Every structure is written in C-alpha cells, then in structure tokens.
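Appendix B, record 7
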Amino acid sequence: MELAKGDMLELTLHGFSPDGRTVGRTDEGMTVFVQGGIPGQRVSTRLTAVKKRLAEAELVDVLAHAPEERPAPCPHAALCGGCPWQCLPYPGQLEWKGRIVKDALQRIGRLDLAEGTIRPVLCVKEGEEPAEWGTRNKMEFAFTADRDGKTLLGLRARASRSIIPVESCRLQTPRTMAVLAALRELCERFDLHAAPAAEHPRSQNKKGPKAPFSKTVRQNDILRFAVIREPKDGGCLVELITLPSPQEDRALRALGQALLDGPWGVTGFVHSTRSAAAPIAYGEATSFCLGEHRLTETLTLSEREVTFQLDHNSFFQVNSRAAELLYNTAAELAQPLFENAEQNIWGTSCWDIYCGVGGLALTMAPHFQKVYGLEAVTPAIDLARVNAENNAPGTSFHFEAGDAATLERFFKRFGSPDLLVTDPPRAGMDERTVQAILKHRPPRLVLVSCNPATLARDLALLAPAYHICAVQPVDLFPQTPHIETVVSLLKK
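Structure tokens (predicted):
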C-alpha cells in the first residue's frame, strides 16, 4: 500500500523509541513513529512524514485502551503536552524508561553489555511509595494570542505551538499555580499583551536597521514567556521574558512590585528581554530585578549539605530531590573505580565538564584535592565559584568559562585527571570533546546524560578505549518519557 503525508492510519502501538515516541507497524511491516500514546493502545493516526523504510505520525484518537492504562489524573491531560505518560501507571513508566535506555545502547550504540551492567531505574520515594507528583521546582509558561486577540498564558499543547491556559498542574505546587493566575490578572490590569507571531519583523533577530513598527501591533504586545522557580529551600522567583520595549518599563516594574506585595509568596521578580524568534524561554538581556533575584537550593551530597546559589538564568535540575539522587549516584558509581575507594580521598584531581553551577563538582569535591570545572555560560561559572567557596573550603577549585570542545587545551595545561565527569546537554558531547578524551585517556570517566540516543553514540565512540562498568538510569521527570542516565567507565 502506497502511503503519503496526511493519510489516516490505524495502528497498534507496541513500544517506545529512544526519543519517547511510540512505535507501531503497518500490515506491510513499515515502522511508524507516533507522537503520543502508550504501548498496547489501538490508535488512529495521521501521517506527518513518509520515508523509504519508516513513517512519522501524530495521534488523532485512541480506539482501544492498553490493558494497564489508567485515567489521566490531570484535567488538562488530553490537550497539554507536558505529561504525555500520565495514563501509564508509574511502575510501568519506570519499566519502559529502563527499556528505552537498554534499546538505545543496543540498537544505536551496538554495545554488547554484560548481564547486570544496566541497572533498574532509580526514583525518588516518599516512604515506600515513589514520588511521582509535585516534583518540579521550575516551570516555563508561554504567552500567545487567540483568534480573538485575547492573551493566553499557559503550557504548550501536545505537538503544537498553541497554548493551553492551565488552571492546575499536578507537577507544580499550589503556590506556583496561584502565582500563574495572578500573573494573568496583572498583565491584563497593566494592559500588557502577547507578542506577535514569530514571523512578525519585530520578533525576528536580523542584522541591520530594525523593521518599522507595525501599525497593527500595539506597543504593549510584548509578552513571550513567564518562568516560575520555587526551590524546596523556599522563596519564589518570577521571570517575565518580553520583547524589548522601553516604553513599558514603568508598567512592568509596577507589575513586578504588585507580585511582590501580593499574598502569593513571590520573593523576587526579574524582567528579561528576548528578540530572537526561537521559542526558547531564555532572556538575552536582563532589564531589572526586584526583591531577591537569587534563590538557594540545598542538597545532601556525599553525606553533607551543599547550598547552591542560583539566579534566573541558572541551569539547575528541575526536580530537586531527584537531582540529589542523580548526583549521589554519580559519586556511588565513581567510588568502585578507585583502588583506595574505602578512603575518603580517592585521587588528586577531578574534572567536571559542562559543570553549570557546580553540581557534580561539589558532589565529588570531598574525595579530591583539586576540582576543575569547564562551562560555556559565564554567569554559571561565577555562581560555581561562589558555591564552591561557600561549601567546600578544603578543596582547591578552578572554574573556567569555555566551550567543552576546547577540552584539548585543558589536557595540555593541566595534564590528565584521575576522574573526568561530564553532564552535557541533550545533543551529547561535542565530537572534539570525545576525541580529546580518547587521545589523553583519563583512567576513569562518569558520564551523566539526559538523552539515551546521544549517550549511546558517545559510549560507542569511547567503548574501544574504555570498559563500561555500570549503567544507572535515574528518573527526574515522572509522567514523561525523559530519563537521566549515569554511566561509569574504566580505561582498558
């Protein structure tokens, strides 16, 4: 049967791909990757792309439910794209995440690992029960205008740029949702509205003179994103990201002050601007801050409390308790790599590549005399230095701003570390980073990854020089297909 984009197709879903899409097959045996659904469902899909040996599709309707399927607990689950696995009971989520990691290492990395190397998925527990709700310390919300021009604030719809104006979210605290509701009301009170669509000249990042301001767009059509952070240490920081608009500075300051003065527990407000059209909730410039614009997060790492200072642009794991589990797992997998593992000091030096504000560096610090960190984002390096000074005075630290692709320079300047740890973005390690590791071959590696597919690629490149000792998935993102993985490696 000839298939074409836009065709409707019925499928029985039988598994997940490494990127979290469900997988089905046509009667002729063609593999179809479906955005949405869970294994065991019979679904109606619409093809979005057709290639020689595979096709891609979006889920249109569930014709028959999976045997283990449960009703989604969230009232927004049918439309919101944030939690696509809600209808899969949490034990089943953990089992499938383990399979995703295993399949990626076998099919993408073509790695033949010994039995037991890949361990069952770890998760945070409340007593004996897994903690699957109320896990996030940060959420990014987006603004848009509906067909009638009304400003909407909420989360992205599933497989769409449209916005669902969520009234509740079971991953968030009640305070976060109360702040979101207050923000909607205050934007309306101060006559601030959603920014124009990305194709509008004003929201494009082009060189040369700015395009003339459209007569059909008002000066106050500037709202793009709202980011709410609420760490378990306390406090609540709201960042409002808009198009540049100096004319609205007074209104934005008044809005921020109203949040601080209100009953919602907001302790800090930041106004940032973003001109680039890419729909990323990250400000290019900070206009002003009100109240406490820094937050703290305290984790118990290597049997001691470590307090991190964070600002509005800091990358930090969005699940605080699971971040604690992740970092401690990295230390636990590193320990057996050392012959003197029973002693407190394992070696002389440890490098943390893609170090951010110093999460892994400070976790490993008690076991090394010197810890080095490399991170491309300069403000993160500044915070890493502060965090190291406040939490590990007995260890010598050297944090440096720089692309991980320049790791070769680190080796030339500092020699080779006893342990190298990495926690790259979803794209995985840069090829030059991997080549530098292979060239100098530090004796021990611990890799942390948020993407099983790119992890499998990186491990396949390292496998000729390193023995893969342990693979430990850790769930930081309940109700989603995302999974973190920690891997320990020993030089052959």
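Remarks on this record: The radius of gyration is 24 Å. The CA atoms of residues 285 and 316 lie 19 Å apart.
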